[in-house]
Amino acid sequence: MSAFFAHSGLDSVEGWFFYLGAAVAVVGALMTVLSRSPLRGALWLIVSLCSVAVLYLLLGASFVAAMQVLVYAGAIMVLFIFVIMLLNLGPDAGVRPAYLSVAKVLGLGAAAYFTFQIVTSVSGGKAQAVDGTVKAVGTLLLGNYLFAFEAISVLLLVAVVGAVVLGMKRLT
Amino acid sequence: MFLLIATLLKFIFFGLVFAIGLAAVLTWMERRQSAYSQDRLGPTRAHFFKIGGKPFTLFGLLHIAADGASMFFKEPVTPKNADKFLFKIAPLIGWTTALVTLALIPFGPSLPSSVFPASWIPEGVETIYLQMAHVDSGILIVLAIGSLGVYGAAIGGWASNNRFALLGGLRATAQSVSYEVALGLTLVGILMAYGSTELGSIVESQNGLLFGFLPAWGLFIQPLGAVLFFIAATAETKRTPFDMPEGESEIIGYFLEYSSMQFGLFMLGEFLEIVVLGALFTTLFLGGWQFPHLIGTDSVSVFGLFTWNGPVAVAVSGTLVFCVKTFFVCSLQLQLRWTLPRFRYDQVMRLGWKTLLPLALINIFVTAGLIWWDPTLSILSYVSIGIILLFVLVVIAGPRRPPQVAHGH
Known about the structure:
The complex is a heterodimer. Chain A contains seven helices and no strands. Chain A is mainly alpha-helical. Chain A has a domain of 94 residues: NADH-ubiquinone/plastoquinone oxidoreductase chain 6, subunit NuoJ (Four Helix Bundle (Hemerythrin (Met), subunit A)), CATH 1.20.120.1200. The longest helix of chain A is centred in the middle third of the chain and has 26 residues. The radius of gyration of chain A is 20 Å and the shape is globular. By secondary structure, chain B is mainly α. Chain B contains 13 helices and eight strands. Chain B has a two-stranded antiparallel ribbon with strand order 1-2. In chain B, strand 7 and strand 8 form a beta hairpin. In chain B, helix 3 packs parallel to helix 10, helix 6 packs antiparallel against helix 9 and helix 10 crosses helix 11. The longest helix of chain B has 36 residues. Chain B starts with a helix and ends in a 12-residue tail after the last helix.
């Protein structure tokens, strides 16, 4: 029995927090899909995103955890909520039943495929804590991954310009 | 176990007693000040007994208790078609994010563990921080948690199932997203200058003097950043002149359907946000608990008249200095309310995106260039003093409204 506890990580506080965070993340993700109301779905997604940030914290990646909450939960999801509130979307708003069933089949298929891939690719053993300080991540981003980092910023710039162009068209 | 109890004590002192206490006192200050600005008497009614026929009101301070009691005993009404669960939790979101943010703010200098009996201290612990969470990416976590605060207003507005409340919630989300961008960018300068994202070490780096007399606080090496941060922070608290989400004269606000203590939570939560942003401004730009000439590394001295030695002395007076500075910044925020007229909605958006954002970006590039030129920050401080003098000059000798001429061209 004690061997089981040691293997599952339940012998440490971090282990308990991992299972708590993981469970909330999975429940949040499920409720995101299962909620009838779009706003409640979006709120469940925020819960899920924040729980994933807890998992990052447990791995020692405090910078990534802060960014996860700041960018996804605090900025992108605020815009999602804004749009849902602005359009005052109710349950199943604007979705044709035919599309909905196709989406269900495709979504279930993708979920099954990714779950299979994840389960088969995970080897035993505990995940190693990383050096997730701001300094370490910054050195990596502006050192080893400089090209990818700059390429992504250009991609985001293109998206911003595209959004401005679309907005301009609506104005004239 | 010791660390757990220490954290709990820090939370009770800084979170419950200082922050919530100051928030309650700010409600009273706001009432007094509003009355003063409008030539009214203000809160004069609440009293327990009379002295010489006059009610003993304690300058209206008893109204804090009277307001609290009246809100607790009123009936909480939930609208019929409201989303019951979301309606109930919405007022708590702002409180949660504000109190979690406080965990990362250092309210006093760190103590060496030798101050406490050796048997209390777990092995390997050498310093006790007067800060609940000593985390490497502190300021980023503050911004991250702070960005979640807007969900209180958004969800409250949505769950009320009322169009005006929904409009208030919408305005709150749009305003918060707009000003968060500027808020984050204004801090980049200070992070570059001090080379750290941990709030405790940012305060540590603000010790010493500039030019031999000026405290080396963030305000004096990032004056533009400080002003922009203060403006963006005021917008985040949703107070006048940025009170679009409330707009008492037009839409009443996202808390339109809230009554009794549920409304009270929203109202007190707003004052709690003022305290949190005041504490954050103190930490980043006013040197936190530091006070040159007064608090040394291991002794406190008031102009040589009174000295008190030891780390406990430094910790106690440092904490006191931090509280006084925070109180000062909070009262500055209250002053704004009756000083500036409120903006129109498009003016709020224009100020955020077209003024604050470009200025914050310019600040980043100029600061980066000056730090690259001279890593000891002395050129940066010369330029900053120049900017402060420019501010002062503009205020003293700036354009004034020409004398009003009687009608007729």
